[in-house]
Batch of 3 targets.
Target 1
Amino acid sequence: MLQELIIFIVILIISNILVYLLQKQYFGRLQPLALRLFFVGVVVHEICHYIMNLAVGIKPEGIHFSWRDRATGGRNPHGSVQSKPRSLAQAFFICLAPLYLGTWLIFLTLTIALNSSNIYVMIISTLFFVSILSAAAPSSQDFNNIPRAFRNSPAHSWYQIFLVLLSGVTLWVILVNTQIIFPLDVYYYFSLIGIYFMFKFSFIGSKKVILSLKLRNFRKPHEAKIRPFFRHRYKPKKPLKIR
């Protein structure tokens, strides 16, 4: 898992460097080609956001791509996906979708380019590799959605953080005691997500049971659904005092 994390960080740094060089127009005569490759990367970037929205249970309001800046009319490839994450976890996954999914696409296109014997396939794969790499980094707006989602529901956000930590510790204990080694790092992430949902639905089920039994209302058993388990006690009224 550590190696995969390092790969994500390296791709994030390289992607930001390429965007910086593109904005400063350091590519010279290759600037028009670089802009077109970056536009393809932007399309992939926004599609990754769109797919992750659907994966976390949010139906996006729309997806937008643009070649030019509306204000200046200059060439400025950009895009957006209109969605409103309801929780911290949703905002986190949506934000990092281009980096995570883009990393797999980067390795896929690079593998095809290096192993193909067809010169045209090699060229096309290499161009896609550069395009996806240039736009793999989440934008500042993507990162801003994470604290915004936290502020919308701080209590629920802390609850989700607690579930992630609990799931991580549980997975670590299981791996240490069973000595299981997965062939691919992605299986560790799937296991972590599975344990997360196990705890989540366990807590939801426990909450429903508690609410159905109204355990919080033991002092008034006549208002609870567990009334048959309580013995009815006769409480005589005190006679009125004669003045």
Target 2
Amino acid sequence: MTTIGFIGSRHIGGTVARLAVGVGHNVVLSNSRGSESLQELVSELGSRARAASRAEAAAAGEIAMVSTPIKGYPTLSDAAVSGKVVLDTGNYYPDRDGGIPELATKTVTDSGYLVRFLPGAEVVKVFNNIFYKHLWSLARPHGTAGHTALPIAGDSATAKATVADFLDSIGYGVVDAGALSDGWRQQPGMPVYGTPYGSFDDEHGTPADEAVIRAALGAATN
């Protein structure tokens, strides 16, 4: 099984860690508050999980996952992920992240902004378009009723294949949304952001298969 190094372990990060451990992957968790703040989650996840510094989590993971507010991206220089597949779950929320001119004017995508701070990483946009409670409740093995898909965007076919395999292992299908520069199609405000999986008021969510996700991506306008 694979080891996933988490840079950020709250809502989406914690949910992916739970799904990963549940099917036999190992996880190394980190956050900005220090490893002591992760002990409750580590205890919940059991022997396949441990807490570490951000640098240690990045180094330990065969795959790394960045799940932190975008305003913190400039501090990621200690995350040595060159040559690694990096799952990018980030979304730019101005009220939280402040004014970042390139993102506010859509000169660069959210993932394009992350790449600036992780040189050499094979970044794949994923998990950013789904409510974390839906992400937990909609996981289904391939071939079962209600099998749900997530969009992914990235420039490396090999990296996207790695991500597709990981998603399959935790109960999700994949729709290839194109290059990393096409990641805007799954950012906030786009048809595939949240809506296909149902209302945030419903913690269980609504299954959305590949056809539904593909149609939502196709309806995106910039």
Target 3
Amino acid sequence: MGGGSSSQLCAHCGSELRAGMRFCHICGQSVLGNDADPQTGSLNLPGGGLRPRDTAPDTVTAAALPAVRASYQPPDYQPAGYPPVGYPPPGRRPPPDGRSRRGRMLFGALAVIVAVGGVAAGLLVARAHASSGHLAGPGHSATAQGSGSSGAGSSGTAAPASPPGSGTASAQHQGASNLSALLAQSVSDRGAINSAYNDVQTCGPALAQDQATFQQAVTSRQGLLSRLAAMPGASALPAGMISSLTQAWQASITADQDFAAWAQDESASCTPGGSDANLAAATGPDDQATQDKTAFVGSWNPIAQQYDLPAYSQDQL
């Protein structure tokens, strides 16, 4: 053009122009004023250049340009630094919302970190609550202070109060266990007394020792009465039950003393099944003891069953 080289570059998009072209085949802009001076409008070409471009519309109208652009398929290669205006390369799309793939990956990684941190914090809180719930268990102190407590006696440190009556139940259990030990000794004495009674009545071979057996039963029951009066936990047991047992042992002591005198009488001249004044005297207190023992076992056996202790009948005591 104008005496220059056979090709040149478009001043608008940098595409290569062939000789004789009036419009750029890439951007569609007119190339007549490609080397024109923006101030003077003259072309900066050898030989004086051409006259300024006529401002009249070209043969190819502006209305035809959109059709040319729509039918044009851009080549795979684009000059560096001059991307086609309005035509992205084939097969590529701009990143949505202006965010790059790297930015989306960083955002996803941050979301995962936040979620894991929330789960870890929840587990720590749950473990702290679970640990605080066991501070007042068996073998531990009744009160426990957390890291944020103000001191003993605060509303958040006191252990739950014991159920109503739990102290009374514990004392009753202690009293019942202690009383069960006394009853076991009384049962042992009862067996020796029955053997001595039958031996005297039949003038048996142990007649010389039967009087001492009755005397020993008296001493033993006197000791049981003393231990019952001072027994720990006795006040937690039914008062009527303790009274019945006390009266039964007192009546048995009186009856055993009469049986001892009867054994002494029979040791001198024994008559099997014979009558004796001391044997008759023992009848009254022995019957009274039977009544009191019956009343006692009626109250004792339910308590013994409750605490898994031995139950008895009146003739065993």
